[in-house]
Amino acid sequence: MGLRVVGAGVGRTGTHTQKVMLEQLLGGTCHHMMEVFAHPDEIPVWHQAGLGNMPDWQQFLAGYTAQVDWPGATFYKELADAFPDAIVVLSLRDPDDWYRSARNTIFNSFDPSNADDPWQQMAVDAIGRHFCLEVENPDAAKKAFVAHNEEVRDTIAKDRLVVWRTEDGWAPIATALGLPVPDGPVPVTNTTDDFRAMVGLPPM
After folding, report:
1. b or e along 109-122 (b: 16 or more beta carbons within 10 Å of the residue's beta carbon)?
2. What residues pair up with 164 in beta bridges, in sequence order?
3. Could you tell me if 23 and 99 are in contact, meaning their C-beta atoms sit under 8 angstroms apart?
4. Which residues are bridge partners to 163 per DSSP?
5. To pair with 87 at 20 to 30 A between CA atoms, which of 22, 43, 79, 157?
């Protein structure tokens, strides 16, 4: 069947919550950066994509029912083309809140100077060069964040695009998939402290 959801929202916009939601809704595995950590054999494939050498997306992501978060969000256009029946979900967050969260988590774990770490080099070429290399500069990073979101809105057809914030709950995504809306609130996962603990950073 292939992907039923292509996630265009960047990291720290509720993407891990989306992963948990989509795995419950679709009954399969949703790709997220966590999957790259768990399957390091994916790193060179994403790295090559960052350099412009795209994989056979259907084959590469054959084990997944959805994709959210980086690095997949970098390639939302290519994934939307490869899976034309999938909806595209753009997760949003206030830019200031987003940067604060990203700076305390994802960006704090970046070390582009580490040429011996394949994950770091993948992150530079598959994320940084397509988004923003100046992640320590809040103005530059927030400008890139807003520009990315505007590009998604301009690129994806309105009848295919679901714009979503965590406070919107289950309904927009479940309805777009033609599935029943689960009862109760969406799960809250991967908080700043959760992420920092995972990568060995001290709590805030």
Report:
1. ebeeeeeeeebbbb
2. 91
3. no
4. 90
5. 43
Report the chain's C-alpha Rg in angstroms.
16
Cα separation, 48 vs 51, in Å, equals 5
pLDDT at 110: 79
Query: CA-to-CA distance for 40 and 119, rounded, in angstroms?
Result: 8
Looking at the chain, list the stretches that DSSP marks H as alpha helix, in order from N- to C-terminal side: 15-26, 33-38, 43-50, 57-60, 76-82, 95-104, 106-109, 118-126, 138-155, 171-176, 192-198
Divide the 204 residues of the chain into consecutive groups of 10 and give the mean pLDDT of each group.
Answer: 94 94 97 95 98 98 97 98 98 97 87 88 95 94 98 98 96 98 81 45 50
For 149-173, give one letter per residue: b (16+ CB within 10 A) or e: beebeeebeeeebbbbebeebbebb
Helical packing angle, 43-50 and 118-126, nearest 10°: 30
Which tokens is 71 given?
């690095």
Which two three-digit tokens encode residue 182?
């689960």
| Residue 6, SS3 per DSSP | strand
What was the pLDDT predicted at 203?
55
Residue located via tokens 């990203």: 102
Sign of CA dihedral 194, 197, 201, 204: positive
Cβ distance 30 to 64 under 8 Å?
yes
